[in-house]
Amino acid sequence: MTEIETRRLRLRPFRDADLPALLAALNDWSVAQWLVRPPYPYLEADGRDWLAHVRRDHQGPRPSQFAVALRPDDALVGSIGLDIEGTEAELGYWFAAAHWGKGLASEAGRALLAHGFGTLGLRRLHATADPANKRSQGVLRKLGFRPIGTIAAALPTKRGSLIRPGFELLAHDTRDGAG
């Protein structure tokens, strides 16, 4: 099983024991409002389905979906992953509101970028954020992503946004000091 450690975090496979923290975070509107894929409210069945999905991901050759846990106690604080298509991927993440503003998203993001561009051999990453989610846009910029304009999305965020700012990061950009 692939695990990635940083100074404060462990990016690891999700575990059944993560279910209560997963449900609590994704049923918090301050978190859920910015997300596209997870339903709201987030039911126990949704969480169990997600755990089964990410378990399969970690059994494959290119694990790309990670629980983000604090190293001292292994407590779940968020999720980060890559939706991979060939040599490109979309970055997605969320963190429980109690852990915002501590630099954890940037720390986890840097580790996942290294995994994506290094271990997984990706050439390009892209991401979008709700137009009002300035925190997420700031994280993307801190990671070295550059704005590429407005993206029309197939699915809205919970806030109803179908048009979102888009960002990209190319593998060669990370060798030049970005991120």
Structure description:
This protein has 179 residues and is α+β, with helices and mostly antiparallel strands. The chain has one domain: Aminopeptidase (3-Layer(aba) Sandwich), CATH 3.40.630. It is 32% helix and 28% strand. It contains six helices and eight strands, in the order E-E-H-H-H-E-E-E-H-E-H-E-E-H. It has an eight-stranded mixed sheet, with helices on both faces. Strand 4 and strand 5 (88-95) form a beta hairpin. The relative contact order is 0.16.
Task: Record the SSE blueprint.
Blueprint: E1 4-5, E2 9-12, H1 19-26, H2 29-32, H3 44-59, E3 65-70, E4 76-85, E5 88-95, H4 104-119, E6 124-128, H5 134-142, E7 146-152, E8 163-170, H6 171-175
Parallel strand pairs: 5-6
Antiparallel strand pairs: 1-2, 2-3, 3-4, 4-5, 6-8, 7-8
